[in-house]
Amino acid sequence: MIKKSLSIIAALAIFSACNTPQHEVGSAKTDETTQENTNEEVDANQLPAVPEGAKVFFANLQDGDVVSSPFLVKFGIEGMEVEPAGAVNEGKGHHHIIINSGFIPTGGTVPADSVNIHYGKGQLNDSLDLLPGIYKLTMQFADGYHRSYGPQMSASIKVTVK
């Protein structure tokens, strides 16, 4: 009986972590939402293909920039469209920022924790509030179920927060 109760509690915790607003890092706002499927829906078990030449990039920051906290991060994308999380649609997804780590392998789920910030409402920018130091920021684009599109749809830079 105790094992069954612990399994139910663990399942509820995982479900809750995937369906509630995410954490904050400093003043970084993070949240998730759902959306109705469209006629472009793909098999939810299959990761949609990434169009050739599609990419993400930091639209207002460059590798080596020195910034004051809080600082604005603008998410750039080419070859795909941004939409809220919740549906898996061909050529679409949403952004994540990963602090002090690299890209998530293709098909891997972006974790929901203090260093993986989810932008599940389809946000195109955010203000990050980080303590002084050197940070690796990785932008990772993922499908509506937070499954990574892999290295092609990621970009990393280092910034110094003064």
Walk me through this protein's architecture.
- It is built from 1 helix and 10 strands, in the order H-E-E-E-E-E-E-E-E-E-E.
- The protein is mainly beta and 162 residues long.
- The chain has one domain (2-161).
- Strands 1, 3, 5, 6, 7, 9 and 10 form a 7-stranded mixed sheet that branches.
- The longest helix is centred in the N-terminal third of the chain and has 18 residues, at 2-19.
- Mean pLDDT is 81; it is low at 1-41.
| Number of helical stretches of at least 4 residues | 1
The run of helices and strands is HEEEEEEEEEE
Helix/strand/pairing class, anyone?
Answer: mainly beta
> What portion of residues belong to β-strands?
25-35%
- Taking pLDDT < 50 over at least 5 consecutive residues as the criterion, the unreliable ranges are 1-41
Radius of gyration: 16 Å
